[in-house]
Amino acid sequence: MAAWLEKGQSSTLPKSTYPRVVIVTEKIPPGAESEKEARKAFLWMLREETTKDLSEQVSAINIVALFPNGKMSDEARHRRLKECLMDESDQVRKNKRDTRTLFSATHFAAFFKYACDHFSETFKEPLDFIKASRIQNPIAADLQEHLSSFLKHIKSPIELIEFVAPMIASSFLLDSYPPDIHMFEPISVFKTLYRDAFTQVSKDRVMAFEGSEDVILRSGFINMVENCLLDLFERSIQDTMMSSNIHKDNLKRFECRWHSIQSSSLSMAYNVDIASARTAWLYLESPAKMIPGSSKSGIVSFAEQKCRRK
């Protein structure tokens, strides 16, 4: 156990999903009190062998004492061990379900392959499951640039709160949860994939607006987007709605806001690629010019088309 703690790396998954250790012994009499004392003794001996924190690798540790061999049937002798293992297994499954890390067989097989590839190259860093899930579908390399350009068109904190935060969250929902992907907890997804882009877009702690004396804390805006993403995720779970449908609803809700985000030489459209569940801001040379959608989906900017018709 000490060697494992010394050489092991903490997982990027929630601590409640870490392995639960069961130590089986015949050296002490069965019973809750003797097993409790044996656990204390074991932890004391472990601290003598390593300074590593057990909680960084293990979520629980229990000791089960067996009755002496030959005094009863094997089934009766191992009944408490069987019950303990089943209880521990149920608890792990519950913890994984509660933290959205209970993988299907298909996802488990994919993550196992990614883990083999990862640890064949390095033992120093743990496998990041959220990042691994995006290996075949990475986030846009120029996300920071698109966010920066989008925010330049925003003139007030109210617009940032009522339009920008839910719209960006909606696009992140579409980007992060295409059909058949594992549904990781959205706050973890945001922190892992998107938060750094916001800190790079706005170096200052306070976000100011051209022609306005109003300001808003950068951290406050980031939290707004994060909370909007959580709300949209919960809606998708409760209403069993696809992320693409939620995103379409948001585009329709803000359709004329998109029409106002333009200048004499620049127009911003929002292209939704349902086939690959990807999003991107597309910049046009002229506000009046129409563009085709993705070569995969052929979907033209929904919001821009509706506003132009008006």
Give an account of the 3D structure.
This protein has 310 residues and is mostly helical. The chain has helices at 2-7, 32-49, 74-77, 79-98, 105-119, 129-132, 143-151, 157-176, 186-193, 195-201, 218-238, 243-253, 255-260, 302-309, and strands at residues 20-25, 60-65, 206-209, 212-217, 267-273, 278-284. Helix 8 crosses helix 11. 19% of the residues are buried.
Number of beta-strand segments: 6
Radius of gyration: 26 Å
How would you classify the helix and strand content by structural class?
Answer: mainly alpha
Q: Can you tell me the residue ranges where pLDDT is under 50 for at least 5 consecutive residues?
A: 263-310
* Main pleated-sheet profile: 2 strands, parallel
Helix content: 40-55%
Mean pLDDT: 81
Question: What is this entry, summarized?
Answer:
The protein has 310 residues and is mostly helical. Helices cover 51% and strands 12% of the residues.
Layout of secondary structure:
Elements: H1 2-7, E1 20-25, H2 32-49, E2 60-65, H3 74-77, H4 79-98, H5 105-119, H6 129-132, H7 143-151, H8 157-176, H9 186-193, H10 195-201, E3 206-209, E4 212-217, H11 218-238, H12 243-253, H13 255-260, E5 267-273, E6 278-284, H14 302-309
Parallel strand pairs: 1-2
Antiparallel strand pairs: 3-4, 5-6
Helix pairs in contact: 7-10, 8-11, 8-12
